[in-house]
Amino acid sequence: MDLSTNISGIKIDNPVMPASGPLVGDYEKLMFIDSMGVGAIVTKTISTKAAQVPRPCIYGENNFAMNAELWSELPPEKWIDEILPKLKKI
User: Fold this and answer.
1) pTM, whole model, 2 decimals?
2) How large is the average pLDDT for residues 2-11?
3) Paired strand residues for 11
């Protein structure tokens, strides 16, 4: 079955992609998610400064989960200078 799709002129193999959040918070996590066969990668929200995330930041019970994270705990320079250039190469 062909699940390929086109998003703003970019063809991807399938429309499955992660939401912005803890699962895509750094390079290693992004590479793991990519290895699962997603069609595209979404990073954790990148802001002008690193977030100070309160702990615990994720709470759950049987029927729900709440995420109180803000945005990436990594400074924007780490994303711009290291992570995003490495992602661009794949």
Assistant:
1) 0.80
2) 94
3) 6
The answer to whether 12 and 39 are in contact (CB under 8 A) is: yes
Q: Residues 33-90: pLDDT tens digits?
A: 999 999 999 999 999 999 998 888 888 899 998 888 889 999 999 999 999 999 988 7
Q: Which residues pair with 7 in a beta bridge?
A: 10
CA 69 vs CA 17, 42, 46: distances in Å: 20, 16, 12
How far apart are alpha carbons 16 and 14 in whole angstroms? Answer: 6
What contacts 33, CB < 8 A, 6 or more positions away?
18, 23, 24, 41
CA 74, distance to chain mean position in Å, is 13
Query: How many Å apart are CA 26 and CA 73, to the nearest integer?
Result: 9
In contact, 13 and 39? CB cutoff 8 Å = yes
Q: Extract the tokens encoding 58.
A: 């994720």
CA 15 to centroid of chain Cα atoms: 15
